[in-house]
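Quick one:
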Amino acid sequence: MKKKIFFVALVLFIVFLNSMILIVSIVILKDKLSVIRDKCLSEHYVIASSLIGDIQALEQRGAHVEEHIDNLMRLYSRYLQGRESGLAVAFSGEWIYESPTFASKENMIFPPDTGYRQERLVYMENTNRPVLCVYGSFPAPWQDYGLMYVGNLSDTISSWRHTKNILFFISAIVILLMSFFLFQFLNIIFRPLRQISSTSAKIANGNYGSRIPVCGKDEISSVAHNFNLMAEQIENQIKQLEDVAEQKQQFIDNFSHELRIPLTAIYGYAEYIQKALMSEEERYECTQFIMSECTRLQNMAYQLLDMALLRRDELTNSNCSVKELFAESKKAMHMRASEKNIRLTYILSQNYTVKGNMEQLLILTNNLIDNAIKASQQDDEIRIFAYSEESAIVVKIEDHGTGMEMEQLAHIKEAFYRVDNARSRATGGAGLGLAICERIIQLHHADMSFISRPGIGTIVKLSFPVQ
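Output:
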């Protein structure tokens, strides 16, 4: 692209410059010829006027003009000798005098026929040396006489050609300088495009952090700026895709791990029952363990099904009463909490309403309460608050259980992640509860945050936007 622009611009410049030089040369030549023409006309007029007087004087003395014309014209020839000009006198259509510098009549049409009119003809002859000819007939009664003045144009044409050559030489220098500066200018203009091409190649090869330096405020700088924005968007999208891919891979790894442990145990106990001699009590214990692991697999399957369904769900426009939500949660979690003699305290200053699905919000609340129960000790208390805060309705679940480290808080929303693996397996947990909660929160355009300290407890804060 740059080479095409360079050669096209250079050719156009050369054509334009040489055309202008040619036009200027022609104008200069015409101007020089016009000056010489006026000079030749003036010389012709002066010599013709003087010659008429001389002819008249000869006729008055009774002499023949043809016999004395050489002596008569010698004076005028000496006058023009240094100018390389020539003179010739015609009588009745034939030359009766020719100066030594006069051009060969074989190369000219002599004498011109003016038809005895008082006119002067001016024309150029392209002989061995260019000349300008002025011919005019004398007035009556000497109309048979005519004077030819021949002016030498060699010096003028030579001077014009020298000037023309100088102009074309200067043109060649200007073209060389123009070529250099045009090439440098195109390099500057196309530098951002080269940078864009280079950067795009780096991005295509996986270097998504490459950027183009933006200088100035012209159109190319605007393109470079927009290219950087595009590259930044691509980099962000790639990072998001990498994060999603990593999360999916981690999900698959964790899921495979979660399946492998109970399946290995089930297979081992089943093989033991099949091959070993055991009492009914031992057989009963083995089958109980197998049933426990199957129950855990069943719960995992239900939770995975819930996650799959939540991915396809959309939030409805229905309203959910927080008071009704707390009542349903208390019914569902009362027996679960009583197993560890834990008190569930629901605190509601007034009946708030949030936009959402009652069943999903009940799953969300019960999962969080169930996690709090698992983390709490015997005879602990779990408090569930609901209150208004600025432009949000807040539901807070507070326990005084084991708590979590900051590093653990960063991963608790990941599927199959468990803070305490031994405790979760003992209670049948698969580490999917908070992943389900996170999806429900996203569907309700809400926010879920955790505050936790080891040995002190955990506070889960749910913020729902006010309708």
